[in-house]
Amino acid sequence: MSRPKSTSRWSAASTALAGDDEVVAETFKVLVLGGSDVGKTSVVRYFTAGGNVPRLLPTVGMDFTDVVVTVSGTRVRLRVWDTAGQERFFTFTKQFFRGTQGIILMYDITSMASYQTLMKWLQTIHQMGMESVVTVMVGNKVDLEGKREVPLQTASKLASRKGFEYIETSAVSGKNVHTSFYKLAESLIFSRGIFLPGEEVEARMQGGLTSSRAENGTFKVEDRSKEERRRAAISNRKLRHDSERERSKGSSGGCCS
């Protein structure tokens, strides 16, 4: 079945906390992957909280935020995991690939080194057998165009070869931040076959947003239960311990396959 031409619209709504009983068609686990300092946390926070965010310290471990989005009349929950980008955390991050349905693969357009790190993430995705996972490749910090080190054509060719959507974003100006997540949500919805029938989609689109407002989107940030937060904290402690153990093996001459 060929994918229909995209006619998506996002309904306007302000950010609001929502409970776990939010009615959605499906919940998708999404990992945000990329090297350190590429702006993963800033992009995620811009998407979930809106507006510019201050410079943040590097993420240690992993954390997630639930966001409800509506695409073409279909409401889904994106469980967005923000991951540590440092290479020493590659090992523990692999443990979280299980059940992943979507990936935001990010690099910094002003850093060729971050683009090379992206290649390592692609290798990890291949090793984990996750190449069929819906992926959007994001070149962040487009507000620093004058400092660009990674040519647009180079990145877009890679994305095309891999079958990824490619978008360039800025967590400073907000350019394409929402679009990157909505593109991912749209692809996930299509891949699962949960689009509404065309006639119903068109009916729900009547009086919808114009293209100039589509960047705002519809999303609700869900508050997690105490139990979910407790499990996440325990997992992070265990994963940090595993990471330290792997590094100790490496420094003592051991190796791992």
From TrEMBL:
It comes from the Eukaryota. This is Ras-related protein Rab-15. Residues 207-257 are annotated as: Disordered. Gene3D superfamilies: P-loop containing nucleotide triphosphate hydrolases (3.40.50.300). Pfam families: Ras (PF00071). Keywords: GTP-binding, Lipoprotein, Nucleotide-binding. One of its GO terms (molecular function) is GTPase activity. PROSITE patterns: RAB, RAS. Residues 220-231 have a biased composition (Basic and acidic residues).
